[in-house]
Amino acid sequence: MQNRFGVKDFVIILLVCVTGLLVFLSMKQADRQWTEFKGLSSKIDSIEKQAARVQDTLDKAEVSGMRDRLSNLSRDMAEVKQQIARGVKVSGAASAASSTQAANDKPAAVVSASDRDESWAVKGVPITWQPERAEHDSEPKTIAGFAEGGELTEIFNAQPQNVMPLVYKDVYGAYVFERVTEYLAEWDPKTLEIRGVLAQAWQYAPDGTWLRVRINPRARFSDGEPVLAEDVIWTFQWMRNAQLAAERPRSITDFITEIKQIDQHAVEFKFNQVLFTNLSGAMGSFPILPKHVYKDITPTQYNQATGFVIGSGPFKFANVSMDSQWKPGTDVELVRNEQYWGPKPVYERLRFKVNRDDLARVTAFNNGEADWTTPNSTQFASFVKNDDWLKRGNQARMWYNIRGGYSFIGWNCGKRGDKLTPFSDKRVRRAMTQMLDRELIVREIFAGLARPATGPFNSVTPQANPSIKPWSYSMVESRKLLKEAGWEDRDGDGTIENAEGKPFKFEFTYPVGNETTERLVKYTKDQAAKLGIECVLKPLDWSVFMSIVDNRDFDCITMAWSPTSPESDPQQIWHSQYIQNQGDNFVQWANAEVDDILEKGRRELDVTKRMEYWHRMHQIIHDEQPYTFVAERPWLRVVGPRVGNFNEYKNGFQYDELFVQNPAASKTNN
């Protein structure tokens, strides 16, 4: 048979060659488009920054018409950037149409800072106006070594389940979303007096039954949309949705019956009772979310979200949607919000990492993988004595502030599953407290960097009952209390049993990774063994641990509470109504007198009389010991040499006023 090269073969080869050529040209075209795409994205970023700088200038000027047009431009830039991220082609005509529609449909986002329009106010009631925030509490530009730009990184010692406002589970989630969102008001870090954030002014009714708040007309979300009254109302109604897993903020805002709109930038809160927390609770208990972003999301979608956060704060997620949101196990990456209406951070990016192991976390810090983190007490004490480490520009910071809080062991006072735990008996709980030498714990486990706690209020605040002293360490008293409760060694085997002959055995559940916690639980296990009790340690990852807590599936746990206000509202932790629905009374402790004290104390506006309620509550909790209050702890931070303007305040420190010293330098703290 002969091989012949015919016309058909020629056509096939020609088609293959043409196809290959087309593929090659297509790839070249794609490369050019990608280069152009990146260039366009970079230009949009540049325009966004320029628009933001001009916006800042006009915010301080008296040129209202230009402000309106620039506000529309800011929104257009945000929309174009989002479209580019989705790969959508944007034409000049479409952009112009968008701008025209925005100008027609949206109210002006900015008004003069000196404009004190009082049309929203009730006549005859004093108005509390807030000064415009022109600078940070400590202005970084005045500090030696100041530089602009760069990235700062913090390492958390636990993995947040989510960073979603309203449904977050822990302080780490709050650390993130509070950089992205804003409240109507906050505590001044220097004076601990309430000051406006989104609130430009307010009126508080003389009889305490209502509060009117004017939203700063300059305030806008990171997508350029103004913060309006409807956003405040929607956020409140969303939080009150029973299908939303927002029991914590609901529990501390139960005094608000409704919020109604006065005008586009003013709302009125109605209160069903007059409480000492009405003013701060109404304006500082929930961040304001953009209705136009979240209104079409279901409660289930929101509950299951982990990082879909958009707000009006100084930082934002670079790209955020329900499909591209942050997930646990990855770094949280925030970028400066160029549209921010207040004093902007001078650095460009903020990153949060997670490392649950104390040694690995500090090693990562020393290797330059982070700019600050939280060491354990032993590590901190070592750093303070390390002259070489300090000479390299590192800092070991320790200070007490309102967020320092206290660590505790929580005893499940109710049922685990369908059976009561041994800790349903207050004599057993007190025996567990008195078997622990808390002076030794502070000295040996906390390296002396703490003080014994006596109850739910910080010992330096007026809320604490000064007559209460920590229960003394006494194994003799512990054995006596256990015997009174029916637990004793009935067969001489060294293990105590109840009347049915069941040995005393319990699980101690705790989050892994913290050396101080590890030492505390092991010490507790050893002390329990001396009493003939078997303590089984159950270490868990933080997210799993929090699920166990929510489901009340534990015998005892160890955690810490960190208050966020100078006078904390103890309702959410101690009232029996918050045993249900995954409330914060997870130890399931119920006391009718304390419930009554909480209801009366919160309504008492006379400070002296209110302190009497809190002192009585402190005494009851001290006697009942639903928690073993271990130690009041200061904040400990190790801070690297790249960080400038790190200041200690009465409520922590301010992320927004930091700067990167020499951003181009290599990262190392060792």
Biggest pleated sheet: 7 strands, mixed
Low-confidence stretches: 60-70, 80-113
Give the class-level CATH name of the largest domain: Alpha Beta
Estimate percent helicity: 25-40%
The strand order across the widest sheet is 9-10-11-2-12-22-13
**What is the CATH superfamily of the largest domain?**
Periplasmic binding protein-like II
SS elements, strand count: 24
Return the CATH topology of the largest domain: D-Maltodextrin-Binding Protein, domain 2
Number of domains as seen in the coordinates: 3
Mean pLDDT, all residues = 87
Structural class: alpha+beta
- Which percent band covers the strand fraction? 15-25%
How far apart lie the N and C ends?
79 Å
Write up this protein.
The protein has 670 residues and is of the alpha+beta class. It has three domains: 38-106, no CATH class; 124-138 and 146-400 and 636-670, D-Maltodextrin-Binding Protein, domain 2 (3-Layer(aba) Sandwich); 406-632, Dipeptide-binding Protein, Domain 3 (Dipeptide-binding Protein, domain 3, Roll), CATH 3.10.105.10. The chain contains 20 helices and 24 strands. Strand 3 and strand 4 form a beta hairpin. Helix 2 (64-85) crosses helix 3 and helix 13 (426-434) packs antiparallel against helix 15 (475-484). The longest helix is centred in the N-terminal third of the chain and has 53 residues, at 7-59. It starts with 6 loop residues before the first helix and ends in a 10-residue tail after the last strand. The relative contact order is 0.13. Residues 60-70 and 80-113 have low confidence and may be disordered.
